[in-house]
Automatic annotation (TrEMBL):
Record keywords, A-Z: Apoptosis, Cell membrane, Cell projection, Cytoplasm, Fatty acid metabolism, Hydrolase, Lipid metabolism, Membrane, Transit peptide
InterPro entries assigned: HotDog_dom_sf, THEM4/THEM5_acyl-CoA_thioest, Thioestr_dom
Family: Belongs to the THEM4/THEM5 thioesterase family.
Reactions it catalyzes: hexadecanoyl-CoA + H2O = hexadecanoate + CoA + H(+); dodecanoyl-CoA + H2O = dodecanoate + CoA + H(+); (5Z,8Z,11Z,14Z)-eicosatetraenoyl-CoA + H2O = (5Z,8Z,11Z,14Z)-eicosatetraenoate + CoA + H(+); decanoyl-CoA + H2O = decanoate + CoA + H(+)
Molecular function (Gene Ontology), one example: hydrolase activity
EC number: 3.1.2.2
EC class of the enzyme, as a word: hydrolase
One GO location term (cellular component): cytoplasm
Annotated compartments: Cell projection, Ruffle membrane; Cytoplasm; Membrane
Bilayer disposition of the protein: Peripheral membrane protein
Protein name: Acyl-coenzyme A thioesterase THEM4
CDD domains tied to this protein: PaaI_thioesterase
UniProt cross-references to Gene3D superfamilies, sorted A to Z: Hotdog Thioesterase
Length: 210
């Protein structure tokens, strides 16, 4: 089938109105997210939560090297440039890589709440093919919080921050204690992380600012 921008626009509209699965609908008891008073100011870079993270780690040579910047409220932006290593079809980004970029961007939001949380559910709409060399302009926000459950949404646009939507996602993150990582992570990396003073400082920030 020939590439047709009109039908793509229709799909963007339908993705925006079709809604997500019931598991991603906040319950009636959900409340508005509250930006933590110690969250980075709008415009500030958030920094990596772990230097070897595939999404944001500076010391991860195979990673996406996403850098998120705090926005107003509980929102942020990030940019991701699709490199040849990210291909699925020739010259096009792999969908799993795009989902990773969305997952990382959504995960970074939890810094603004000062909560440690992991992805429970991630639903992704792939709306336009994304060629290698494209810079995706990602924008994400937390829409609701219910107990440990954090509901958030993200879009990735092409040709600038107000360009056409290429991917979008809705997610449910679940807040976890630090023990989630200590108990489940491979011993080798956990020990190294515990010995790293920078990692200890980042982790402590969450523990002393509940
Ligand atoms: C010094 C060393 C320490 C280092 C510290 C490092 C700090 C790092 C800081 C930040 C790291 C952030 C990393 C970001 C990376 C990007 C984001 C990712 O890719 S994260 C990886 C992918 N995700 C997972 O690996 C989760 C695997 N899943 C689990 O571990 C569990 O299933 C978990 C925690 C999600 C839930 O398990 P439960 O036993 O704690 O809690 P339950 O009771 O099952 O769920 C709580 C509520 O959430 C709902 N829920 C859970 N999963 C759901 C799902 N899939 N769909 C819908 N609802 C779900 C449940 O229905 C329940 O709701 P009701 O309270 O009853 O209303």
């Amino acid at each position: 089938m020939a590439w047709c921008p009109d039908s793509l626009d229709a799909r963007v509209r339908s993705a925006a109105v079709s809604g997500s699965s019931a598991a991603l609908q906040p319950p009636a008891s959900a409340r508005k997210p509250e930006r933590h008073p110690d969250a980075p100011a709008p415009g500030e870079l958030l920094g990596a939560h772990y230097e070897h993270c595939f999404g944001c780690g500076h010391e991860q040579p195979h990673g996406l090297h996403l850098e998120a910047r705090a926005g107003e409220g509980v929102s942020l932006t990030a940019e991701f440039t699709v490199r040849p290593a990210h291909q699925g079809a020739p010259g096009l980004a792999h969908g799993g890589v795009l989902a990773t970029a969305l997952d990382e961007t959504l995960g970074s939001l939890n810094w603004l709440l000062r909560k440690i949380a992991v992805t429970g559910r991630l639903e992704t709409d792939f709306v336009r093919p994304v060629p290698v060399g494209t810079t995706l302009h990602l924008a994400a926000e937390v829409v609701a919080v219910a107990g440990r459950k954090i509901y958030s949404t993200a879009t990735g646009r092409m040709d600038g921050p107000t360009g056409p939507v290429a991917v979008r996602a809705e997610a449910l993150f679940v807040e976890v204690p630090v023990e989630h990582f200590v108990d489940n992570g491979r011993e080798e990396e956990i020990q190294a992380a515990m010995k790293d003073p920078d990692q200890a400082r980042r982790t402590r920030a969450f523990e002393v600012n509940p």
